[in-house]
Write a structure and sequence with these properties.
249 residues, 5-stranded mixed β-sheet, 23% strand, 4 helices
């Protein structure tokens, strides 16, 4: 799709550039000292415009809309995906995993505390017992669809992971899902880039306050074994009272 759009732009660029040079030479003042008020007498430009409209319609209706429906709107079944909540907050990303039971614990706006409980998670709810929360740390298994439910605690933010080609505004009072499939682990990407300090990042792509520049989350794409080991460790912390989406930044 990207190649076809670039090809169209190339044809238009070359065509209009040739016409521009032709017009400069053909209608220069020295050769046409007197302006011609009648203008163009043929319909060539109309045919060109109709042709461009047809090509753009084919790209839009034949490619863009069907691809969008298949790759963006057609979400994978939640049972086959890693489902995570990402709650934006000035100036951090609060990550919420449902735990082994696959159910997110109850949240209540009355329980929200920006410092100790930004998610408003009710730990008295049985479904919350195994929930895992982190701050600015998102772990996902490689090769498995990830569905991220995005929302905001305060102002409008924007969840963006460049390598996954996703960007979605985080709107207060709304939960908006995006999905993608991570295909390269963090370890493999570090090797490819020859940089052991490199990491996937969650960037806020919407100006959200004075600390906007430092609102960065870090994404770790694990192997299945690494992800399970990390999740087991986080679940133990949560059960031991060490978990919770604290605030920092």
């Amino acid at each position: 799709m990207t190649l076809w759009v670039h090809l169209l732009m190339l044809v238009l660029f070359v065509g209009w550039s040739i016409y521009f040079v032709f017009a400069l030479l053909r209608f220069r003042a020295s050769k046409n000292p007197k302006a011609n008020p009648e203008g163009v007498q043929n319909h060539a430009s109309t045919y060109v415009e109709i042709g461009v409209i047809i090509v753009e319609a084919v790209l839009l209706l034949g490619f863009s809309i069907p691809l969008w429906a298949e790759r963006v709107n057609q979400f994978p079944p939640e049972g086959e995906a890693t489902v995570v909540r990402a709650v934006a907050q000035q100036f951090a990303w609060n990550i919420h995993y449902p735990g082994p039971d696959g159910k997110f614990g109850r949240t209540d706006p009355k329980l929200v505390d920006p410092q100790s409980n930004p998610l408003g998670l009710d730990r008295g709810d049985p479904a919350s017992a195994d929930d895992v929360t982190t701050v600015n740390q998102l772990h996902l298994p490689v090769g498995k669809p990830a569905i991220i439910q995005i929302s905001s605690l305060d102002v409008i933010h924007s969840f963006a992971i460049q390598e996954m080609r996703v960007k979605q505004d985080a709107i207060p009072g709304m939960s908006t899902p995006v999905w993608f499939v991570p295909t390269v682990t963090s370890d493999d990407m570090k090797k490819q880039k020859s940089d052991e300090k490199w990491s996937y990042q969650i960037n806020c792509a919407q100006l959200c306050g004075l600390g906007h520049y430092r609102m960065v989350g870090y994404v770790t794409i694990d192997t299945t074994e690494q992800y399970q080991a990390w999740m087991d460790a986080e679940e133990k912390k949560a059960k031991g009272g060490e978990g919770g989406g604290g605030f920092w930044g």
